[in-house]
Each structure stands twice: as structure tokens, then as C-alpha cells.
Automatic annotation (TrEMBL):
A single GO BP: mismatch repair
Stored InterPro entries: DNA_mismatch_repair_MutS_C, DNA_mismatch_repair_MutS_core, DNA_mismatch_repair_MutS_sf, MutS, P-loop_NTPase
Domain DNA mismatch repair protein MutS core: 57-390
Keyword ATP-binding: yes
SMART domains membership: MUTSac (SM00534), MUTSd (SM00533)
Descriptive protein name: DNA mismatch repair proteins mutS family domain-containing protein
Residue ranges of domain DNA mismatch repair proteins mutS family in the record: 455-527
Length: 527
């Protein structure tokens, strides 16, 4: 396998091996080189090297940025897992890009919302776990299942309505069309849950005759106990006594600061340590009945929830499949939202050894000139994604600061009258306005990276802090983004090869203690 090297303050990028793409930078005087290396070690060692290479490229930061666009915690976890997968095939990458493109089409059309803000997928996952163990569902878990089923049904209805108006959307939204239509919606389960669980998470009295009877018994006994306590308190002759009804471990008692009372009772411990708590002897039988009635309520509620568990068990596999499908939709939507947020372009990816494939997969509607078809890598006006993200965040914060300054000035003028000086606007807004203007002028500069098919090695030269590493990382991240189903942050049509692995070694790995030259140190680092 060939190696390439360059001398001076430079970076070299090899072109190209299907199995691996290695990029190396030694940012000091001396040699900088880059090599394409065939990996013959064990898969575990290869994985460690690949993950370390991705860390060097700051792929982890990009992954967290993309995952932040997911609407659910499970969606964010799944997004990170998918982006960190290093075992995708070329066909996997094409499928991921198709999904992202379809989600972008959906967002632009606006007819099918993938907003999962009101759906708690973690509770649904918990519900599935409880049902598998044949344990009673909790009311909030049951409501979460209903929310998921209703979301899926609404999504399907919206998609069908959109396709009915425009049949072409069926193809434009593929493969998401198929994913959404395959979601399982059990309307019978929705009805069963809503019949017994209220919107606030409480179980309805009408859920079962036993529950209704037990709750009625509890209410009757509580009413009798409060009447008894009220009578005992009113019968006390000393009006200066402080007496109040209190509940201790579910038993109604009287709290008092007096040492002696006219009625007999049991002295109970006070959790606060202030005063005495007395359970009147006349209240003991009623309290015993109340405890039994409450236990009956608990048992009746468990029976109701256990019945829901049994109904959910019938289609549990389909419900779990639907949950996983919705999580996957959240992941796809996160990739699409990220791409839209930063103005990405869907890349054309191809296998380097099959150059004809790059022609057959180019979009029919794209305006690709014949000269552009001669490039192995074609990245016009490409941005480093982390630099663009950082600039966007700073700009958004600057606009917020400016709006806050405007609001404060309006408040002072409103309440200060003539106290607002003529030059106050300049004094208060000038720093914020200057910050916004400075950030708008300091927009990250895109780079053009065009590598012809016959090019075997590309050398980038320049002084320190000249942007060589940024250029190198931009290429590495662009390749990984395309492989992972993300749009490349390029303002125009982009084309990159697909690689099984991406290796990066940025920094001086010379090791005198191990008798390694800088060149050998770099080779050792990447495998």
C-alpha cells in the first residue's frame, strides 16, 4: 500500500483507498505527511484506532450538536448511537441519506409534523418493561402509551391527507412514507385506557364496580370520622385549648397541646414533636374500617391496571416495534433539522473503485457540469461544521443581548420620562450593536476542495495558524457526515467518496523513548 509524505509546513491528503482514509498533520517545522494504510490487525484494535481518529476530528462534538435536535431523550441517545456506529455499509449510508432527504421534504412541506414534544417515550419504554413482567401498569405509563398511539395515528392521517392532495409526495417522502404507514395503531387499547384513566393520571370511579364501591366506602367512613372529631372538639369546655383534626399513618386523630381532655383515647407519637396526638377510643373502630376500605381501593385499582396490562400484552411486540419506529423517526428528524438549520447540501457519495456509480447516483435535477464530474472530491464553499455552529450560537446570543438592551431602554423611557437622556441610546446599545456587526462580518470563511480523479496526493502548505488543520478536519468531517446520513455543510452540490474507515492523526507523535521517528510515530498511531 503506497505512502505519501510532504516536507515543510504542509499537510498531505492521500487519494484514495476504499477501505481507509488516513489524514495526518504534524504542525511544526519538519515533515508533515498523510498515508492510506490497509488495516490488518484485529477488529478491536481497528475500532480503538477509528474511535481515537474520530475524537481527533472532534466528531463527538458534532454528534452532540446533531443529537440536540432530537425531541426526546431516547431519540437523543439513539442519534448518538447511530452517528458513532462505524460498521455502516455503503448501502446503509445511501439509506440514511434517503431518510434525511425525505424528512427535509416533510419539514418543508409542513403537512406531517414529527414534533414529539408531548410524547414521553421513556415512560412508554417503562410501560413495555412492566407489561413484559406481567406487572400492573402505572397510570402515567398508560397515558404515555395513549399519547404515542395518538401521535402515530395523527401522523398517519396527516400523511394520507397530504398524499391524497399530491400523489407525488408518496415517493418524495420515501422511505419515511413506508415507515410511518407501518406504525401499529391499536385504537381499541386507546379506548380501553381512556375509559379507566383520567387525563390527570387518576383512575376513574367508573373503572370497575369494585373500585366505585370501595371509594364510596372510604368517603362514607371519612365523613363519619370528621363528624365524630368535630363533635368531640365542640364538647371540650375550655375554649382556649388548641384542637385540630390530624391524620397519622392514615388514621384520623386530634392534635392538642393540653395534658387532659374530656374524652378517652390512645396517645400516639407526633412526627413534629409539638403537642400530643390522641386517637379517641370511639374513633378506633371507624379508623380500622377506613384502613380496610383504603386497602380495598388499592386492590381494585391494581386490578384495573392489571387488566390494562393483559390487554397490552396481546399486541406488545407491535407496540414495542412502534416505539422503536418512532425513536428512529426522531433520529431521522434530528439529522434533517440539523441539516436545515446549518444550510447543508445532500452529498453524492460513491465507491471509489466504481467511478461509474458516481454518475448514475447524481441527482437528475442537479445542475452538474461535465467538468464537475471529473472530481473525486467536490466540496465547493464547504464550512467546518463546528466553526459554523460556534458562530451561529454567538450571533444568536448577541441578538438576544441587543434585544434585551432595546427592552431596557424602552422601559427607562416609559418610566423615566425626561430622565432618558438624548444620547442614552448610543450609550446602551452601542456595545451590543457593535458585537452583532462584528460577528456578522466575522462569518466563517468557506473553503473549496476539488480533487481530480487522477490526483494521487494533495499537499496543502502554509504557515502555522494558516488554516491547514481546519481544512483537513473539514474534509474528514464531511466524509463522516455523508457516511452517517447527514448533509454536508456546503452551499452547492457536493460529492465525496465513501470510505469504510476514516483515520486521523493530528499532532507530533515522535517518540524518542521508543526510538521512533516522527514518521514512524504517525504510522504507529494509526495502526
Amino acid at each position: 500500500m503506497p505512502l505519501w509524505a510532504a516536507f515543510g509546513d504542509s499537510i498531505s491528503i492521500p487519494i484514495f483507498n476504499t477501505k481507509s482514509f488516513a489524514i495526518t498533520n504534524k504542525n511544526r517545522r519538519g515533515r508533515l505527511f498523510c498515508s492510506t494504510v490497509a488495516v490488518s490487525d484485529s477488529d478491536d484494535k481497528k475500532s480503538r484506532v477509528v474511535y481515537e481518529s474520530l475524537r481527533v476530528l472532534e466528531w463527538d462534538k458534532l454528534c452532540h450538536s446533531v443529537s440536540s435536535f432530537a425531541r426526546t431523550s431516547l431519540g437523543r441517545e439513539a442519534t448518538l448511537t447511530q452517528l458513532w456506529s462505524i460498521n455502516q455499509t455503503y448501502q446503509d449510508s445511501l439509506r440514511l441519506l434517503d431518510e434525511t432527504n425525505a424528512a427535509i421534504e416533510m419539514q418543508k412541506h409542513g403537512s406531517c409534523s414529527l414534533d414529539l414534544t408531548g410524547v414521553d417515550l421513556s415512560l412508554v419504554k417503562s410501560a413495555i418493561r412492566e407489561v413484559r413482567r406481567a406487572s400492573p401498569l402505572r397510570p402515567n405509563e398508560a397515558l404515555a402509551v395513549v399519547a404515542l398511539l395518538q401521535f402515530s395515528e395523527t401522523l398517519q392521517l396527516s400523511l394520507r391527507a397530504a398524499i391524497k392532495e399530491d400523489a407525488d409526495l408518496y415517493i418524495r417522502f420515501m422511505p419515511l412514507t413506508q415507515m410511518i404507514m407501518q406504525l401499529f395503531v391499536n385504537r381499541s387499547l386507546i379506548k380501553s385506557i381512556m375509559q379507566v384513566v383520567d387525563e390527570d393520571g387518576s383512575i376513574k370511579d367508573s373503572a370497575s364496580p369494585a373500585l366505585k364501591q370501595s371509594r364510596g366506602q372510604v368517603q362514607m367512613l371519612e365523613r363519619k370520622l370528621y363528624q365524630l372529631m368535630d363533635m368531640l372538639i365542640r364538647n371540650e369546655n375550655n375554649e382556649s385549648l388548641f384542637l385540630e383534626v390530624s391524620s397519622i399513618h392514615g388514621r384520623l386523630c386530634i392534635r392538642t397541646g393540653a395534658d387532659q381532655l374530656s374524652f378517652k383515647g390512645l396517645l400516639l407519637s407526633s412526627s413534629s414533636g409539638i403537642g400530643s396526638v390522641i386517637e379517641p377510643l370511639s374513633a378506633v373502630p371507624l379508623n380500622d374500617e377506613l384502613q380496610q376500605a383504603r386497602a380495598s381501593v388499592t386492590k381494585a385499582e391494581e386490578d384495573v391496571l392489571l387488566a390494562l396490562t393483559e390487554k397490552m400484552q396481546v399486541d406488545l411486540d407491535e407496540i414495542e416495534k412502534m416505539l422503536n419506529g418512532i425513536i428512529q423517526l426522531d433520529v431521522v428528524n434530528a439529522r434533517a433539522t440539523y441539516s436545515l438549520s446549518f444550510g447543508g447540501t445532500s452529498p453524492n457519495i460513491f465507491l471509489p473503485q466504481d467511478m461509474k456509480r458516481s454518475l448514475t447516483h447524481e441527482p437528475v435535477t442537479s445542475k452538474v457540469s461535465s467538468s464537475e464530474r471529473e472530481w473525486t472530491i467536490y466540496l465547493p464553499k464547504a464550512y467546518h461544521p463546528l466553526l459554523l455552529q460556534q458562530h451561529k450560537q454567538k450571533t444568536q446570543q448577541a441578538w438576544k443581548d441587543l434585544e434585551s438592551a432595546n427592552t431596557e431602554l424602552r422601559r427607562r423611557k416609559l418610566y423615566g420620562g425626561n430622565a432618558a437622556r438624548k444620547g442614552e441610546k448610543d450609550t446602551n446599545l452601542s456595545p451590543s450593536e457593535m458585537q452583532v456587526s462584528a460577528l456578522e462580518l466575522a462569518h466563517p470563511v468557506p473553503i473549496d476542495i476539488f480533487i481530480a480523479r487522477k490526483t494521487r496526493v494533495l499537499v496543502i502548505t502554509g504557515p502555522n495558524t494558516g488554516g491547514k488543520t481546519i481544512c483537513l478536519k473539514t474534509v474528514g468531517l464531511a466524509v463522516m457526515m455523508a457516511k452517517s446520513g447527514l448533509h454536508i455543510l456546503s452551499s452547492e452540490y457536493a460529492k465525496v467518496p465513501w470510505f469504510d474507515s476514516v483515520f486521523a492523526d493530528i499532532g507530533d507523535e515522535q517518540s524518542l523513548s521508543q526510538s521512533l521517528s516522527t514518521f514512524s510515530g504517525h504510522l504507529k498511531q494509526i495502526g
